[in-house]
Amino acid sequence: MRGSLPQLLARGVEKGAMFVFFAGFARIFGAEAFGDFSYLFTVCTLLFILFDLGGNFYQVPLLAKATDGKDPLATLIMAKSGLFLIILLATLWFAPSPLLLILLISFYLNALVVTARSWLYCRRQFQQEASLNVLEKLLFLTAATVGGGIGKSLMACYWSFSVGRVGYLWAFFRRNRPRLNFPSRSEFLETIQNSWSYLLHAAVVVVFIQIDIVMLKHMGVASQDIGFYSASYRIIAVGMVLPTVLLDISYPQVTEYMGNQWFSKVHGVLFHPRRLNLLAGAILTIGVGFCASDLIWLIYGADFSASAPLLVLMSPLFLISFLRFADSAIISGTDFNRQKLIVSGLAAGTNITLNLFLIPAMGVYGALVATVITEILVLMGFHWVATRACPGQPHKTRDLLTILLGSSLVFGTGLLFYDHPIIRIAGWVILISGGFYLLLELRQGSMETKPIS
User: Fewer CB atoms inside 10 Å of the end CB: C or N, the chain?
Assistant: First the structure.
């Protein structure tokens, strides 16, 4: 796919830079400070959804449909700025934390970066976006290294995000000089109103992915334990670069083909990315699961050894998330986005409910179990909706379950060799559940092939 290599490299730099930052932050300031940072970062992520207008999923189609004389770039920037101002004033009133405000400003700048990125995607300027992305992360890492690494300043680490994003925006406007048309009142309001389903979907996705950090904090779990949990999750997040890049590259073309109901072309565009994601997800799940202790020691040091069993049990998220990317692209490019919102909303409710019951009993392990269960439900729900939005899907829901079954049996067997009791219990649960499902499949198959007398 054209543009995928530079985007993959740029996103690799992006994820790598964030990972280096988180690892350095944890090593320098310790697990407790890292836990507090993870909590504030999650809060800002939740607030970010309220002024990002659905991100690329909403902005790419909007910008793609625009004519040269009516580029909605300025409308998006003004809408985001107005919503951010409301959020900022509310934050100043209810939670006037300096560190929270610094992070929130950087997230506003990131919302503008997302708009600029969408503008470039619509013009197939993938290489330019990749170069701007690399520039942003290099400036970000430089600021973090000078202020946090050398100066040992916690506040400098928080400001470093803004430094990189200001650099991205400066280079974008200097190079492209896009036409900024002042929107009418009706255009301004219409842009905000039409984004609600994408905004809600993004909100519920973030809720079921990251609400666990907030709930852990407010349910009395120590900041140090939250730091251990976050350290494991950051390793998982680094591996998500591949499906993220493939989704960014595929989405404009998938949207065009879905709009014209060229379903065979949609499957053609997604054929190789599907296979690549399946292979990469399986390799990362098994590889990270078996090397968790060594990875934690190498990245965070011996003080974070408690993160190793958490990382082992989180590693299936690679395969689950990688399998979901194609279905997400299909649904978002159609009128089925509301069904996607319903699935995500049910998942968010399930995740919150599970956390309420499991965190008091199991702490961070309860949040982990809730996350894995929710991700599986989202995978199956998205696939069900995608098969109806785009007929002729290459994999039926049962095929997807079979893929998960085969991987889980291999993964569960490996867990039995660990010394940690929770990991061994998880291995037995996976094997028993997988074996039970296999028996049901065999029984169903025998009934289907049994001759009628």
Answer: C
Q: What is d(CA 13, CA 17) in angstroms, rounded to the nearest whole number?
A: 6
Show the DSSP H helices in 123-153 as ranges: 126-144
Distance CA 188, CA 207 (A): 27
Average pLDDT over residues 106-132: 88
Name the phi and psi angles at 117, rounded to 5. Answer: -65, -45
Q: Are 411 and 282 in contact (CB under 8 A)?
A: no
Nearest to 158, CA basis, from 136, 178, 140: 140
pLDDT digits (tens, 9 = 90+) for 174-196: 999 887 777 777 777 777 777 77
305-327 pLDDT, tens per residue?
888 888 888 888 888 887 777 77
d(C-alpha 24, C-alpha 35), whole Å:
14
Q: Do 409 and 431 touch, CB atoms closer than 8 A? A: yes
Spell out the residues 6+ positions from residue 174 whose beta carbon is closer than 8 angstroms to its own: none
